[in-house]
Amino acid sequence: MVQKYQSPVRVYKYPFELVMAAYEKRFPTCPEIPVFLGSEILHESRSDDGAIHIIERSCKLNVDAPRLLKKIAGVEYVFFIQKNTVNWKERTLRIEAHNETFANRVVVLETCSYSVHPENEEWTCFEQSASLDIKSFFGFESTVEKIAMKQYTSNIKRGKEVIEHYLKELISQGITFIPRWTPPPVCGQKDESLLNCSLLFPPADKLDADYIERYLGQLTPMQESCLIRLRQWLQETHKGKIPKDEHILRFLRARDFNIDKAREMLCQSLSWRKQYQVDYILQSWRPPALLDEYYTGGWHYQDKDGRPLYILRLGQMDTKGLVKALGEESLLRHVLSINEEGQKRCEENTNIFGRPITSWTCLVDLEGLNMRHLWRPGVKALLRIIEVVEDNYPETLGRLLIVRAPRVFPVLWTLVSPFINENTRQKFLIYSGNNYQGPGGLVDYVDKDVIPDFLGGDCMCTVPEGGLVPKSLYQTDDESESSDHIRLWTETIYHSANVLRGAPHEIVVEILEGESVITWDFDILKGDVVFSLFHSKRAPETSHKEATLPSTSAAGDNMQLIDKTWVLGVDYSRMESPLVCREGESIQGSHVTRWPGFYILQWKMHGPPPCAATSLPRVDDVLASLQVSSHKCKLIYYYEVLASKDFSYMQPPSDMQH
Predict the structure, then answer these.
(1) Adjacent-strand bridge partners of 543
(2) What span, in angstroms and rounded, lies between the C-alpha atoms of 393 and 273?
């Protein structure tokens, strides 16, 4: 049965042009409508005189349906095609929409129209009609029909509220009148109404001078020309969302207004944003509670230039614990959400202060920074995050203030600085000790009444104080991979492994040159294990082997490489003395290789020492044996091979430490 809907006529007591300006604010995303996740322009055209404007969009919607139904259907979201035809001459907008998802099973048609009120040309009418025809849906036709109608009707009222919301927003910005469409002026004749409208809708081939000064800042004629040409190229060739002028301008500035280099950089970034749905991250990303407690960063008012101010207490952050508890993926997504929020705050401050604010200031406190922060996997994760930010958020950092830099900071700076763009490095100001206090310090860039209390100011700062992340919160690969987040990186730092009696976990590292360094870092999550390092000239054969425990048929992530026929001292040799690692311990170590060949890292279950034949077993030994035999050991580990010359800044070779 076809379900139909016809709305009553709704009246907005505002002119058509102003209502259209409010309506366009719903795109490409609309936080005021949670089910509307975003849109992408598929096609756009205009008539020669500009009176007819047609836009066809693909709209992404989230359906509030039971998880089981979504799983059966095999989709998380549904897509609709929406065609908007606005006639500025007749002052009408016709909206036609149909579903693209499950089009062969479900047919959804919707028609909406905005037009001038027949009795008052300063008012606008709205009408809406829709139909739903469910042909077949895996036997859930009735359920889908109820869900669809319930969600559709609940959003009808919301639609009007959203238009009212954006109308009030326009009025609060001083926009109460938008001139009506008029035919293009005769050559040489000026049309004042079009000039007055340029602040809201700058022409595609030209940027109005007032618009530039108000929203983009001072540009030379050549810089303006580069911006116009790049924007035109995007409009002609790019299928999808066209970036805002200030976003395009950032990429031009990052490439010194070399239009070819800026275009290449921008296109790669747009593809990256589309592939990983970065445009929706502020709506979709909800930081884990652990980040709220242990990630020592947050927004804090603005600096003297009106830039949003972000404070990062890096010295108080347990970077190693955050990587192990959340993984690089969550940390990256959190950093991306911070950058997206920063751009949003820049736009808000542009409206508040009446001048272009296109970047933010970051204040980094290094009090507490030590060698723990130079943990190699953590530094590697930091470098990868810097690389992603540099590639996709150029020229968003206006100034970086680093205070209380300790002696270890030059080591970190040596590792990080090569990955930072030269233009960005020039914005760094570094203060050691208490040099940030007094003239020439923070007060030159941040108003005294917003300097945080922990830096000697009077302003209470809500940025978390951080601390060590409990090891009980550390994740294994299995747990991190079960996350629903879209992966932005295809590789991970840590691997997980299960160790059972009779089934040690082993990994092989092939060394082609004698002078190399194998480094490792692992945490024992459960049970006690013995760690050893062996060398063999023979290549071991990879094989999964079963544990001797019948209660555990699957050893999980467990690999055994040393063949049972191999003889220690003949087929392979021990390179490091066995190290007993207790539950909860974190082990880091390294080994300088002397010969090429195959190095095997082994973790095996640790049991109690054998009792003498004449003595009775001790109670503690019996209890330990029972405990070990009934539980598998679990660990997470990371290893890397370095050239010996690249290892000079780390601990001495053949060193294992807790």
Answers:
(1) 560
(2) 11
Cα-based angle 529, 534, 540 (whole degrees, multiple of 5): 105
Tokens 């194998």 belong to residue:
518
* CA distance linking residue 213 with residue 215, whole number of Å: 6
Q: Is the pTM here over 0.85, yes or no?
A: no
The count of C-alpha atoms lying within 13 angstroms of the C-alpha of 140, restricted to the half-sphere facing its C-beta, is 15
- Report pLDDT digits (tens) over 616-641: 444 444 444 444 444 688 888 888 88
Strand partners, 459: 452
Tokens of 564: 């049972």
Give the confidence band of 397 by pLDDT, cuts at 50, 70, 90: very high
- All domains in the chain, ordered by first residue: 2-173 (3.30.530.20), 209-276 (1.10.8.20), 279-471 (3.40.525.10), 494-540+557-608+626-646 (2.60.120.680)
196-243: per-residue pLDDT in tens? 333 333 444 445 556 777 888 887 767 777 787 888 888 888 777 788
Q: For residue 185, what pLDDT is reported?
A: 62
Of 45-59, 165-179, 202-216, the one with minimum mean pLDDT is 202-216
Question: What confidence tens digit (pLDDT) does each residue in 323-333 have?
Answer: 889 888 889 99
> Count of alpha carbons within 13 Å of 249, Cβ hemisphere only?
20
Can you tell me the distance from the alpha carbon of 121 to that of 640, in angstroms, rounded to the nearest whole number?
A: 72
CA–CA distance, 222 with 398 (Å, rounded to integer):
23
Distance of alpha carbon 201 from alpha carbon 183, whole angstroms? 16
Q: Which of 127, 104, 130, 105 is nearest to 114 (CA)?
A: 127
Whole-angstrom Cα distance, residue 626 to residue 629? Answer: 5
User: What is the percentage of the chain residues whose pLDDT exceeds 70?
Assistant: 80
| Highest mean pLDDT: which range of 143-152, 469-478, 481-490 | 469-478
Q: Are strands 360-365 and 397-405 parallel, antiparallel or unpaired?
A: parallel
* Structure letter (DSSP) for residue 256: T
Cα–Cα separations (whole angstroms), residue 530 to 344, 505, 549, 605, 609: 52, 11, 19, 6, 13
- Helices 259-275 and 221-237: crossing angle in degrees, nearest 10, is 40
Bridge partners, residue 573, by sequence: 535
Record the tokens describing residue 580, joined without a space.
């007993």
CA–CA separation, 563 vs 544, rounded Å? Answer: 12
Between CA 480 and CA 181 the distance in angstroms is 55
Measured over the CA atoms of residue 13, residue 18, residue 23 and residue 25, the dihedral's sign is negative
Section 96-106 average pLDDT: 87
Calculate the CA dihedral of residues 319, 322, 323, 326 and round it to 10 degrees. Answer: -160
Q: Using an 8 Å Cβ cutoff, are 545 and 503 in contact?
A: yes
Block residue for tokens 């940025």:
463
Calculate the alpha carbon distances from 137 to 27, 66, 105, 107 in Å.
Answer: 31, 14, 6, 11
